[in-house]
Amino acid sequence: MSDTLFDDAGAEAAKGQEPLAVRMRPRTLDEVVGQRHLLGEGSPLRRLVEDDAPMSVFLWGPPGTGKTTLATVVSRVTRRRFVELSAVSAGVKDVRAVIDEARRRMGMHGTRTLLFVDEVHRFSKTQQDALLPAVENRWVSFIGATTENPFFSVVSPLLSRSLLLSLESLEEPDVRALLERALTDERGLADRYTLDDGATDHLVRLAGGDGRRSLTYLEAAALVAGPPGPEPVAVTAAHVERAVDRHAVRYDRSGDQHYDVVSAFVKSMRGSDPDAALHYLARMIEAGEDPRFIARRIVVHASEDVGMADPTALQTAVAAAQAVQLIGMPEARINLAQAVVHISLAPKSNAVISAIDAAVADVRAGGAGPVPAHLRDAHYKGAADLGHGEGYLYAHDFPGGVAPQRYAPAGLEGREYYRPTGHGAERRFGEVLRRIKEVLRGISP
């Protein structure tokens, strides 16, 4: 447990030994990089800092997105006593001690307390329950930071009494801004080092949206490059590779390498080669490609290249995309890999994309005849006078739930868009479709 009223002197003495990421923590909300959706005028965080408003907040997001940073900013500018607990080491006794001290100070001096709990998802139910009275009665203003989904890791009564603010992985320009600030700021490297373009690109890719990681790697690369002299020391991609032991993957996210790797990735899944597909997946991940982009490509090709030959492929792909949002990287690489393997090994069919493209082509060519009268809406007054709904056959009144009637508009009778292959489950669907069409056309199956 730390309390800024007691720790200021010790913190000042240790400042020169702090990691670069700690030294570069913003001092005001205006210095915070990223999270623009949370830092606008009138936002809860602004009110907590600028108006000293009493409230309790959960900050949920991937590592390195600024949860501890935001709490530190609040601690610097708030007029409240700031206390920090780590859920890794604190117990129920520590929580109750903080609350008792907060009540005592409020009663004796009118001093209010801001309690920050890092990794709050590690608190047990009992520990979280111990916070409830303090949060409900506002004996403390509470900030909890977590990388886990609070709906699964935080007890409902505590969550319902707090605001939930979601932080997002930093965008590439945000990480570049962090690196540039660390190079020039007196708290950082103070213009004693420079980064060439290759080193910057490599650091941005390695960071994967994690600001703390980008600064940690920059500090390590600067150590490899050597001590500063009269002139700034140039940090290159080679220095970054040696410091982090990660090869700089050649992959321009806006150039040929991007499109070539993505093309090879898609064609490997389509070609049923899971090993090649996983290789290209790994290249994209290591190069810092947005995992949401990768997930979108997988979802598209679950329908484009597999479709009804294995309908569960789309379910797996969508689940992987949701996992990217829910879990984040690096863990979500496992979910992406599972979806890639599923699509690669699934029976293939392009019948779905061929069907929709053919239907769209007919519509664009003017093949959009009037809706048959018996299918038109007959619920409004006067519809019956127009013959709408007359002669409609209710499918559930017929064997198999299929009524012998026409559904296509005039001019498109008998037009076939979906043509099932004999691959995987689509062979069975093809037989079902054949029997349905026999009924629709009035042919005895």
Salient structural properties:
445 residues; Helicase, Ruva Protein, domain 3; Zinc Finger, Delta Prime, domain 3; 4 domains; 6-stranded mixed beta sheet; two-stranded parallel ribbon; 50% helix; extended
Per CATH, the superfamily of the largest domain is P-loop containing nucleotide triphosphate hydrolases
List the total number of helices: 19
Give the overall shape, derived from the CA principal axes: extended
Count of domains = 4
Radius of gyration: 30 Å
CATH-defined architecture of the largest domain: 3-Layer(aba) Sandwich
Please estimate the helix content. Answer: 40-55%
- Strand content is 5-15%
Q: Major sheet: order of its strands?
A: 1-3-4-5-2-6
Q: Main sheet, how many strands, which sense, barrel? A: 6 strands, mixed
Order of helices and strands: EHHHEHEHEHEHHEHEHHEHHHHHHHH
For the record, the CATH class of the largest domain is Alpha Beta
The end-to-end distance, rounded to whole angstroms, is: 77 Å
CATH topology of the largest domain: Rossmann fold
Q: Give the class from helix and strand content and strand pairing.
A: alpha/beta
- Write down the overall mean pLDDT: 84
The number of E-state strands comes to 8
Return residue spans where pLDDT drops below 50 for at least 5 consecutive residues: 4-13
Subunit organisation of the chains:
single chain
Write a short abstract of this structure.
This protein has 445 residues and is α/β, with parallel strands linked by helices.
